Structure formats: C-alpha cells, structure tokens
Amino acid sequence: MQTGELISLAFYFTAMIGIGIYAWRKASKDVSGYMLGGRQLSPAVTALSAGASDMSGWILMGLPGAMYVTGLSSSWIAIGLVLGAWLNYLLVAPRLRTYTEIAGDAITLPDYFEKRFDDTSRTLRILSALVIIIFFTLYTSSGVVAGGKLFESSFGLSYEMGLWITAGVVVIYTLFGGFLAVSLTDFVQGCIMFVALILVPLIAFGQFDSIAEMNRTVQQQDPALLTFFTGVTFAGIISSMAWGLGYFGQPHIIVRFMAIRSVKDIPAARRIGMSWMIVTIVGALAVGYTGVAYVADTNAALTDPETIFIFFAQTLFHPLISGFLLAAILAAIMSTISSQLLVSSSSLTEDVYKAFLNRDASDTTLLLIGRGSVLAVALIAIWLAYDRSSTILSLVSNAWAGFGAAFGPLILFSLFWRRTTRAGAIAGLVTGASTVLFWLYAPIEIDGQSLSSLMYEIVPGFILASVALVLVSLKTPAPAQHLMDQFDQAKAAAS
What we know:
mainly alpha; Sodium/glucose cotransporter; 2 domains; 77% helix; membrane; sodium
C-alpha cells in the first residue's frame, strides 16, 4: 500500500468513527432514538442513506464487472432496480412512515406486522424476526468477506486482518451512534460513491479521442457487447428487471422511510434518492464499458472483471486520489454492513428480547441489549467469513429474492388493501419464502437447466405469495373494525 492511499484511508476511517461519536452524543438516549434516530432524518440523509445501504459493493464491483463481460445487455437489471426504487418511494414510503407511527409507534418491521394485524399469537413477529436475523447475519458475513478480500488484493494485508478492520470500524460507529450514526455515515459514504462513479469513468473516457474511437475498440473486442438483446431471452429480461420487486421487502432500505421526519419530506427524498441512484448506476455501467476499451487498447492484464474499478483507481490516479477511490468501495461495503447490523440488532432487541423475555425492560436495558446484539451479530459474521468457500455465502446471494418475496407482497397489501387478514399475511410470508427456497434447491431441471437459471426466483415467489395472501384473506373473517379504522386513518394521513 502506498503512503498516499494509507493517508486517505486513515482519514476515512477517522471520519466514520468521528460521526459515530457525534451521533452518540446527538441522538436521544432511548430505544427509538437508537433504532430509528427519533424519526428525525432529513430528506437528503434519508435518500442517500437508503441508496448507500442498498447498493453495497455491487455498484462498484459487481455491476461494472457485469458490463465488462456481457456489455449493454447487463443494463436490464439496472433498469429494473431504478423502476423498483422509484415505485418504492412512491408507494411504500409515505404510507409506511405514517402507518408505523399510528400502529403503536412500531420501530421494526416485525413490530409493524404484529400491530397492523393485531396478532396476539405473535406468529407474524416470530416468523419475520427469524427471517431478518438469519438472513441478515449471513448477509453481513458476505459484506465482511468482501472487505477482507479488498484489503488482501489491494492493500497487501492478510484476508483475516481485512475482516477485522472492515467489521471493527463499522461496529464502533454502529455500536455507539445507532441508527443516526448509520444514517449519517451512509450519507457521507453515498457522497463518496457519487463522486467516485463520476470521476473514474470521466478520466477513463479521457484516455480516448472520442466516443466513436472507444466504440470501435469495444466492437473489435466483441460486437455483442454493443447490443441490449444479444444472448438475452425474454425470460432473462423479465428475471433481470424483476430485481426491482425486491425493493418492497428489503428491511434495511424501507426502515429509512419509517425514520424520515415527515411525510411531507418524502417527495424531496425521492428526487434526491433517484437522482443519486441514476447517476451512480450509469457511472458504474460506464466504468465497465470504458474498461473493455481501455484494457484492450493498452493490452493490460485484468484477471477478474469485477476489479475493473480498482484497476482504474490504481492505474489512472495519484495515490492520494486512489486511496479516496478505494475508500469508495469500502464505503459501499460498510454502509450495507452497518444497516444490516442495526436491523438485526433491532429485531433481536425488540422482537425477541422485549417481546418474549422482558416485556417491561427499561430503555437503558434495551439500549444495552441493542448494542450487545450489534457486537454479537458482527462476531458471528466474522466467524462465518473465515471460511471463504463457505456454502452459506451462496445462500446470501439469494437473500434479496428471499426478502423481496417474503416481505414485499405483505408490505404492499398491508398498506393498500384493508381486507388483508392476519392469516393472509402469514400465508403470504410463508409462501414467498418457501417458494424462493424451493426454486433454488429443488432437484428439478427443464432441458438440463435448473429452475433458478430459467427464471429469477423472486418472480414465482412474489406472485405465489400475493396469490396466497389474497385467497387466504378472502377465506377468513374480515379484520376487526378498529383495524379498518386504523387503515383509513393511515391512508388519509399519508395523502
């Protein structure tokens, strides 16, 4: 690691920890303040926090790598994600912000489900909390692995040291500052990612005389890279765009909607968030596309397409700037890890400890349990990450589909259909999660292809969950009148 890169990274880590300490002193000292920042996030912090926690290392490594390998056909997933994020802001954000406050000031998704459907059996809380805790522990482990590999490949440190540095810094600011620290650091990290994904493709493009020259170089490499449809079937396009459905059920993203200070701030957050997302996704695609031309033009050696951003950072920039750009990758990784840690901690604290072990726990006790949960989940994630080849990590890659199918239809119907019943909600949640798992692991092949390779598992999961929810709701007694009134009140307040 060069001195300039080390200075940039040291400054970045110091800034993240400093924000955590600031949030610790600023946030209200109760469980709502720790888990939701007291519902006082500004539109800009809400938008960039949601975006940064969403994208993770995928935006700086995965998407550029996909563009490098498959060309413009990889844009379909980006189109689906943009549409999904926009609809999430438009449909879910205003009603969820209002409803979670009306429904007994619910501060976690399982808490909201239980209060929305008056579930005295606590079945919804148990099922949804289990899904969140298990999947997010594994999801967090995947992010820690990415940090370990980044430190190993780019900075010359051991993989294990990279794991502890990545997780350690995140745990420090999350442990002390809670949701406010996570959201403020996400805001800063989102800004870093935004600048990096404008700067890198612009400088890389500057190595060519014109767009025409760059396109000719790409065409000489592989003409198929210049088309949107080469090698892509209709089912493939549907599968790629269906990634957007996942937004409706991602706890670490929609919790930001619960924390914004007012429903009136949501349109501003939507404009900021969607502008940020479109610029960063286009920038990521541009990194991969210009990478094809640059590597071919210079005969450079690139063994892993997903490292094209790192290659540009270390090839085209001064070490000080290179360190800033590598910090952008860490920012993407850490922003997601911190969100996942906090959501897991929230469920362990509110949906397990308080709900089943100590219903009369004081705020001081809950804060202590919350911070302890952050540390516990982080340590388990690090332990899992020590096995780089762990098959668990292949399951983590499907968590987006699992959350989207299990929670997505339930979120939408709970907000838009007053006839949704508790039994219907349970049926939808179980059907969505089960369908995704069946689609992934059932020993069924069609023309030699697995179900998952034919169609992204979120598509059948989302559809069947919605059907199950509607049919069971219609076959069971309508919700109590006070729940109907609560729905109408939330609808009116969100308008």
